Amino acid sequence: VAADDFGLSRPLGALRALCAAGLAQVDTALEMSSTDARLLRIAIVVRRVLWDWPQIRQAAARKALRTLLVCCDASSTAAYDLDEYPVPPSADPADLTVAWLYDALTPAISAPVIAIPDEIRTCPSRYQLAAARWMIDRERHPERHPDPCWFRYEIAAPDHDDGEAIWYDAVRGAFMPGDRPVPDIQVPRGGILADQMGLGKTLECLMLVVANRRDRPNADL
């Protein structure tokens, strides 16, 4: 899939690239005027073997299809200008930076806390009690849940009642038929305590140690 003059990050360029490669047929509805062209809806009728094709492993093909998937999102009713970027190039989850991640993080408004352990003589702050509770939960309660990297997109023609869907892994760039279940992932025990310097991580860890001791009374030293 070769890039063209329209750019793979724009709907029209993505349409042309995927059609030229034979990866998909498209059913579109356009609103034309003397000043602009609006993409009202787009539906990709994806070949069943799409996710097995060598072409889809190319970065250009994944970029083009990602552009179209954004336009096909069933939860969105917005119209896209054919020459606009539906998603800024920097919004590709695979390209996100650590700085962006930290900027996006917000503290919980009412995070649960633990009671102050009897062995702790210092009076911890509430955020330290919340951090200790979070660490205890991470040690005691490993979880499984659907992989959050997979996003579901409707890809059938707009006039279809039973819309066909496709799963798209936004991080790895993988695709999967919509009738398959999203794989579960095992959330590992533990985590990263990443409070800034001077906020009391040592006290938080001490509270974790005394509040969640390992039950091995006969263990050898």
From TrEMBL:
Give the GO molecular function terms.
ATP binding
Please report the stretch or stretches of sequence annotated as the SNF2 N-terminal domain.
127-211
The record, for Pfam families, names: SNF2-rel_dom
Coiled-coil features, chain-numbered ranges: none
Q: Which domain of life is it from?
A: Eukaryota
SUPFAM superfamilies registered for this protein in UniProt:
P-loop containing nucleoside triphosphate hydrolases
Gene3D superfamilies of this UniProt entry?
Tandem AAA-ATPase domain
The record's PANTHER family line, in alphabetical order, gives: E3 UBIQUITIN-PROTEIN LIGASE SHPRH (PTHR45865:SF1), E3 UBIQUITIN-PROTEIN LIGASE SHPRH FAMILY MEMBER (PTHR45865)
Q: What is this protein called?
A: SNF2 N-terminal domain-containing protein
Organism whose genome encodes this protein: Beta vulgaris subsp. vulgaris (Beet)
